[in-house]
């Protein structure tokens, strides 16, 4: 939760950050871009989780977050130095991303029984998205927006007030991250005294053999792309949602609420879908087909709404709210279902390695989009068209995918 909150600090308040710290559109996009850049050492964290367990990995991850959040709070009067410290802090927080995104299936397998695993995976994996949603809520509510007060933009007192409120948010996030690190340092065991299932106690493939198995498994590569492309596009899109909605005269506060409810709705529905998958096993592909069909329709609606001068669809706050929230619900709720399907497809490859590869691919797609965004930030209509295209491609890949449940077979049949 904290890593997602810190990562998405600047997108929802980008107008205020420009005024207070002199950020450009390139700076705002780069602050979001540090998230996918932080996935560069993803394979090291996979190895660390596989060899050293959860405790060592989580402690290293949370220490990076503490250091990153602390750098953003260093009180330097020179704005250029301050901006560099903020960028450095965002990079260190991005380095915590691999563990945050990849550890959920490993955590659920290690600690939970087969009829609880999907639910545990959903809660653990979606909390990062909920943290990003919290940034949409906290930022615009705490930090005043320069929108609607253009006559004061040259006022030094107004700028200082906005800057003070942003720094209050930074200090609060630093305190929260430090508290989490202290708690993990005090007590965070790697595993329970007794394994909760046969799969949790079974031997896994080595690090090298795992990569050979993943890269040679065509079915895994199909669903890896089905996950990475739409989720990578959506993550980059939501990170600069305020920037996208500004040309259609949506205020910073409204953009924050749209982002907040789209992610919260996805978290709620994702946990409900995962609980359904725990009760009725062997339905993961069917659930994904439903979710991706909804995501394709919702993203198409949003894109056509933004082109109201051509399509003549009503461009109102209600339509933007509805289409964005539905898109977030369908895509975010698919994350834990994808994770469970990955693990079932390539078992006995360790969960951390499996999910590490797919989240790395997702961040590659996200990084490529944000890279283009830094150069083409004046024209964002192409970014909106990437959404329905990626969702449709993912839907077609899932339609062609042949599902299997190797880990579930081991737990249900072998244990009996």
Proportion in helices:
over 70%
The residue ranges in which pLDDT falls below 50 over 5 or more consecutive positions are 148-154
Distance between the termini: 38 Å
CATH architecture: Up-down Bundle
Sheet of most strands: none
The CATH homologous superfamily is termed: MFS general substrate transporter like domains
Could you tell me the CATH topology label.
Growth Hormone, Chain: A
Write down the CATH class: Mainly Alpha
Give the number of domains.
Answer: 1
Q: How many H/I helical runs?
A: 21
Q: Over all CA atoms, what is the radius of gyration?
A: 21 Å
SSE order in H/E notation? HHHHHHHHHHHHHHHHHHHHH
Structural class: mainly alpha
How much of the sequence is in beta strands?
A: under 5%
User: Which term fits the overall shape?
Assistant: globular
Average pLDDT across residues? Answer: 84
Number of strands: 0
Transmembrane segments: 28-48, 122-143, 168-188, 218-237, 257-274, 286-304, 320-343, 355-376, 382-401
Main location: membrane
Keywords: Glycoprotein, Lysosome, Membrane, Transmembrane, Transmembrane helix, Transport
Family: Belongs to the major facilitator superfamily.
Q: Can you offer a commentary on this structure?
A:
The protein has helices at residues 2-7, 14-21, 25-37, 42-52, 54-71, 79-95, 97-111, 117-142, 156-186, 198-201, 207-216, 218-239, 241-245, 252-279, 284-306, 308-311, 317-332, 334-346, 351-375, 381-400, 406-414. 78% of the residues lie in helices and 0% in strands. Residues 148-154 have low confidence and may be disordered. 52% of the residues are buried. It contains 21 helices and no strands. It is mainly alpha-helical. α5 (54-71) runs antiparallel to α7. The chain has a single domain, classed as MFS general substrate transporter like domains (Growth Hormone, Chain: A, Up-down Bundle), CATH 1.20.1250.20.
